[in-house]
Design a protein that fits this description.
By secondary structure, this protein is mainly alpha-helical. It has helices at 2-24, 31-56, 62-70, 76-100, 120-141, 152-171, 177-187, 189-193, 197-216, 223-226. Helix 3 packs across helix 5 (120-141) and helix 4 runs parallel beside helix 7 (177-187).
Length: 227
């Protein structure tokens, strides 16, 4: 149970600090707002990785949990527990954001941006590809045989910054269904109507990442030497 609670706490922190920074920076697409928001999400992940990583592994993202499940790193029971914790954490964060930013619309919720016409298809492609790359970094850096060890949290956080720099213009960057759902519930309108995009894209991306890592990752202790 502790690891499920840890996932709720971690997802709350990620959503509250990341989306809070986005709102404080007016959810803009100017350089300062984009960079500031990207850094906020990345640093939140780094902070939580070194806070709850030893308890739950610090997924704080349903797409990462799905990738770990598809990779055989966790049981279905634990995956469901993680998802419940993550969704609850994201919703609580959305509620707190709605309370403190009562006069601000959006709450850092994701949406269909103007890039390449701002189509749903473009948003799905962006979220799928970016999530695939992000989850691939997570799977690689946390692999027990070839991973980055204690530096995994830093690598994951930095990769999230880079992913936000690419994706904010298109979707506000989700790559995390729980992070999208919480603010969308309280923002309502188009944010809630389009939230399915930020479930479908990231979850497909998580599965794709698991498939890629199964192909390129080590299959046994001697694989690295043989390659």
């Amino acid at each position: 149970m502790k690891k499920y609670i840890a996932e709720a706490v971690g997802t709350f922190v990620l959503t509250f600090l990341g989306c809070g920074a986005a709102v404080s920076l007016s959810c803009g697409t100017d350089t300062a707002s984009v960079v500031g928001t990207a850094i906020a999400f990345g640093l939140a992940v780094v902070a939580m990785a070194y806070t709850i990583g030893g308890i739950s592994g610090c997924h704080i993202n349903p797409a990462i949990t799905l990738g770990c499940l598809a990779s055989g790193r966790m049981s279905a029971k634990d995956a469901v527990g993680y998802w419940c914790g993550q969704i609850i954490g994201g919703i609580i964060a959305g509620a707190v954001l709605a309370g403190i930013y009562c006069c601000t619309s959006g709450l850092g919720a994701n949406g269909i941006g103007e890039g390449c016409g701002g189509s749903v298809v473009t948003a799905l492609i962006v979220e799928t590809v970016l999530t695939c790359l992000f989850v691939l970094v997570v799977l690689g850096t946390t692999d027990s045989k070839v991973g980055a060890g204690n530096f995994a949290g830093l690598a994951i956080g930095l990769s999230l910054i880079l992913i936000h720099l690419v994706g904010i213009h298109f979707t506000g960057t989700s790559v995390n269904p729980a992070r999208s759902l919480g603010p969308a519930i309280f923002a309502g309108g188009e944010a809630l109507a389009n939230v399915w995009v930020f479930f479908v894209g990231p979850l497909i991306g998580g599965v794709l990442a698991a498939g890629i890592w199964k192909v390129i990752g080590p299959c046994c202790g001697c694989c690295k030497k043989e390659d």
